[in-house]
Amino acid sequence: MTICEQIEQWLQDHRVSTQALQRPQVTLCYAQSWDGSLALRPGESLPLSNAESMRLTHRLRSMHDGILVGIGTVLADDPQLTVRECSGKSPQPIVLDSQLRMPNDSRLSLSQDRQCWVLTSPEHAHTIRKDIALIGVAKGADGSLDLGLAMQALWLRGIRSIMVEGGAQVISGFVRARLADAIVLTVAPALVGGYKAVSNLGIHSRTQLPRIAPLHTERLDDDLIMWGNLHYPEEAH
Question: Is the pLDDT of residue 63 over 90?
Answer without folding.
Answer: yes
